[in-house]
Amino acid sequence: MTKIAILGFGTIGQGLAEVIATNSEKIKAQCGGIEIKYVLDLREFPEHALGGRVVHDFNIILNDPEIKIVCEMMGGSHPAYDFSLKALNSGKGVVTSNKEVVANFGPELLKAASDNNTRYLFEASVGGGIPIIRAMTDSLRGNEICEINGILNGTTNYILTQMKSSGKSMSEALACAQSLGYAEADPSADIDGVDACRKICILSAIAFGTLVPSVKVDTVGIRNITTQDISDAEKNDSSLKLVARATKLPDGTISMSVSPTFVRNDNPLAAVNDVFNAVLVRGNTLGDVMFYGKGAGSLPTASAVLADVIDLVLCEGHQPKQQLWERCENVISSLPSDAFSDYIGRVGTPIAH
């Protein structure tokens, strides 16, 4: 029985506890079982079954040799990064759903994991329950990935779907998303493209081995999209989507952007609606392959966290080496004219807003 600690007992943290309890027999058959020994949070949870395991001092977890794996689901950069680094430096494996930490500090955390013969896993940081990261690192390893296009934010995709299907304005569709819990009270990270930008930075780092800081990526959200834009897309046999793109050009230059895009209706991304996410990966020998599913939510995201936990348990004592990332400041937003024409013909036309 492997003992783990959960850092942050919010939506995803509680979802992880639920998935472990629900699938306990399957988990036991796969890896001998997983026990949540500690839950770190500022709050108390007297009504929860794990309420008696709540602690408020991370050092209790750090100094307990029984804890082999730390699951970080705190959100934000600090103290999530600091706790993750300390755990890795103590030889504990770390699993996270925190895209902000991965996008900001991935190189440092991956190196710390390598230096201490453990791993830093983050499947849940992009695409919720979609197994995109494991697919890119394992199943597609025989390909040179040259381009990634993704609908990586379920909130904005839901808003655009509502504007198209129900004729709602941007503000009306956003209010609907907030009422259903898809959007936060402050939706800026979603509708301004920040969330999608962090995710494409992570996928680009996996594909190309270099992490581009999110502040270097030309990012335009959907805040100023109107019903006229939706109508214009339909007139052009397209669907309006917020697309995050990363392309490695033949000379090695990386081009990245996040932009509202008139996606051609013959491209599979055009049919992705509501809160669903999709990632279209282009390999040099495979061509295009798409990964599709729920990009957020407690249980789908927790399922991805659990898959990483089981992977760490199964590989205890012989953790495989991970790709290390370099930092890359040299990124361009626009594509060369010939590549841009090809992109329009295959995917669609980014629009300025």
H/I helix tally: 13
Overall pLDDT metric: 96
Q: Helix/strand-derived class?
A: alpha/beta
Apparent shape: globular
Roughly what fraction of the amino acids lie in strands?
Answer: 15-25%
Would you summarize the structure shown here?
39% of the residues lie in helices and 24% in strands.
Provide an overview of this structure.
The structure is a single chain. The N and C termini lie far apart (53 Å). The protein contains 13 helices and 16 strands. Strands 7, 9, 10, 11, 12, 13, 15 and 16 form an 8-stranded mixed beta sheet that branches. The model has no long low-confidence stretch (mean pLDDT 96). With 353 residues, it is α/β, with parallel strands linked by helices. Helix 1 crosses helix 12, helix 4 runs parallel beside helix 5 and helix 5 runs parallel beside helix 10.
Please give a handful of descriptors for the protein shown.
353 residues, alpha/beta, single chain, 13 helices, globular, 16 strands
What is the secondary structure topology, with strand pairs?
Elements: E1 2-7, H1 11-22, H2 24-31, E2 34-40, E3 54-55, H3 58-62, E4 67-72, H4 80-89, E5 93-96, H5 99-115, E6 120-121, H6 132-139, E7 145-151, H7 154-166, H8 170-179, H9 188-191, H10 194-208, E8 210-211, E9 218-219, H11 227-235, E10 238-248, E11 254-264, E12 276-283, E13 287-294, H12 298-314, E14 326-327, E15 331-332, H13 337-346, E16 348-350
Parallel strand pairs: 1-2, 1-4, 2-3, 4-5, 5-6, 8-14, 9-11, 11-15
Antiparallel strand pairs: 7-10, 7-12, 10-11, 11-16, 12-13
